[in-house]
Specification:
The chain has 367 residues and is an alpha+beta fold. It has 15 helices and eleven strands. α1 packs across α2, α9 packs across α13 and α14 packs antiparallel against α15.
Length: 367
Amino acid sequence: MEIDPPTVGVEEEFLLVDPGTAVPAPMNVEVAHTATDVGLELGLELSRCQIETRTRVHTDSAKLLRELRDLRRTSAACAEKNGTRMLAAALPPTVPVPLSVTDTPRYRRIADGFGVLAQEQGLCGCHVHVGVPDRAVAVEVSNFLRARLPLFLALTANSAIYRGADTGFASWRNIQWRRWPSAGPPPHFTSVDHYDTLVQTMLSSGVILDPAMVYWDIRPSHTYPTVEIRISDVPATADETILLATLIRAAVMTARTASADGPAAPPVAPELLHAAYWRAAHTGVSGNLLDPTDGRIAPARTLFVEFVDDIGPALDRLGDHRLVIDSLATIFARGNGAVRQRCSFGRRQRAEDVVSALAEATVENCQ
């Protein structure tokens, strides 16, 4: 069965920091207000030092990339007008505790219910929405893509430096994020009813306060007719974000074809999937990763080549095969956000140097 190219949209979360001290700046309300003056609506996240951009719905990767660049450029300019710098960084390179929580009724409830988890949030991710016909398809796609989630994490890892130190992980955000009770890889679902039953159990037990707190790394969106993949750190550059979105879009197409033409996705052992997550968060693209489908250890480059081969027909239909090949070559030659962070941290061991490098990367090719 041949699947028509689905729609795609992207949400990116960014940090606001003081340009002098590099500490998080609780200025999201002010920056969002400035953005409205230029016709841009920014989302307010849990922490006052975070803002979120949201693209329109797209069917063409080149147009999506142009909007991602426009959003980064315009948002960074609005931040600058308010005396802050906007960073595509998944964690503050230096951070005071606690961070102030955005003053909305929902965020106050989360802060009251989850204590230090909310106060230490400040975690910035990237969420890719791909259109699907219904929630049943979203659940099937979730089952098929669970084993691929560590690859998306490794690709976008961008939180190596935290509190002025090298964490030893490419994505320390992922380690922090999985403290939330509904975060991490989703279960293998047997049906939509299975999904809904688990969510209702979390709601009735108080583990989550509302459906928006279903933080699984892939889920049927509670807002849009999409499947939402939320595993990723916010990528350092817009070019890396379009690579991520394109890989995910092609993977969703491939999963839907496999689901229509053959048996259901085989379950992946949770123990192997969690181990693959840890390995991806630790290593990023700079070493060996674990394939959770068979327990094989292989260089990240090898697993990405195999992945691109698997989704190749979908990439061809999208007209994006060359984009993916060239972009991955750039990543493996230059490194992702975590590599940039460590290079800028260097001998001086100064978080301010990391902030400067990330600020440049955030608007790279966006002018």
